[in-house]
Amino acid sequence: MKSVSSFRYEEVEGFRFGYSPVGKPKLLVYIYFIDGLLIDTGQRQMQKDIIETLKPLPVQQIFITHHHEDHTGNLAELQRQFDCAVLSSKLCSKMMEAPPKISFAQQLVWGDRPAYKGFEIQESSIAINQFKFEIIPIPGHAADMVALYEPNKKWLFSADLFINTYIAYFLENESIVDQINSIKTVLKLDFEVMFCAHKPILENGKGKLHKKLNFLLDFYEQVAELHQKGFAPKQIFKKLQLQEDWFTRLLSGGALSKMNMVKSAIRDFEVGKEIKY
Ligand SMILES: [Zn+2]
Q1: Strand 61-63 vs strand 170-171: parallel, antiparallel, or unpaired?
Q2: Which of 23, 119, 163, 211 is deepest in the core (most CB within 10 A)?
Q3: If you measure from the C-alpha of residue 234 to the centroid of ligand 1, how many angstroms do you get, rounded to a whole number?
């Protein structure tokens, strides 16, 4: 099933694209447009709809928040359509030279994306007509992920830092401690609205992000404690009464799972990653 809709908040336009091979889409993807700037390019499975919907926009620049396939799925096509510069961080540009392979589940839901070269590297800020955005590195969910912060408007374009207050699964290489630290960094900023790439939070963005921080901190501390006591990942899973979404785990060949969250906590603990205070 496909779905397309849009909304407006102050000078921000949000375009929502949903796709699922069966039933209603579980996770929706938002592309934002502000005053000439397009943030991310959506999933390839919605390519036709995305190109048609965005066609009338006067896009002058495209900014990519991170290399994941639901953000970069239509990059080349939209760049061609608008004949504009594509900006990203150095690490994102590097990762997009040969993007990591995705699982069957991700292929099915989002669709893959080809390699892309030709980014204009931007690490500190981007200016577009009336607005200036600070680029804030927020690694964890992806090593190259950044947020865009507009201090005058108190807007935060948070990429996939939030997604939800509670998280059901991780990708294999996500870092829970980096995510915790990135949330802490962002919570120091003075923002009100959080334009999440999967769920915009137009009120009390900070409160929602605080909730997620507490959830991740609790999860990390509980796993680290049991790990120190000598319990194996499977035993920790049982002891914490965690539930696996087996459909997602099996379909993704293990690329997406709650067990990945447990393993991420153990890995971060073992390498001595520290939580910022
Ligand atoms: Zn992502």
Answers
A1: unpaired
A2: 119
A3: 26
Which candidate, 17, 76, 12, places its Cα nearest to that of 38?
12
Q: How far is the CA of 245 from the centre of ligand 1 (A)?
A: 19
Ligand 1 center to residue 235 CA distance, Å? 29
Sign of CA pseudo-dihedral 57, 77, 20, 31: negative
Q: Which CATH number fits domain 2-173+189-205: 3.60.15.10, 1.10.472.10, 3.75.10.10, 1.20.1640.10?
A: 3.60.15.10
1: tokens are 């099933």
Q: How confident is the model at residue 182 (pLDDT cuts 50, 70, 90)?
A: very high
Q: Return phi, psi of residue 153, to 5°.
A: -90, -10
Q: What is the pLDDT of residues 186-195, one digit of tens each?
A: 999 999 999 9
pTM above 0.90, yes or no: yes
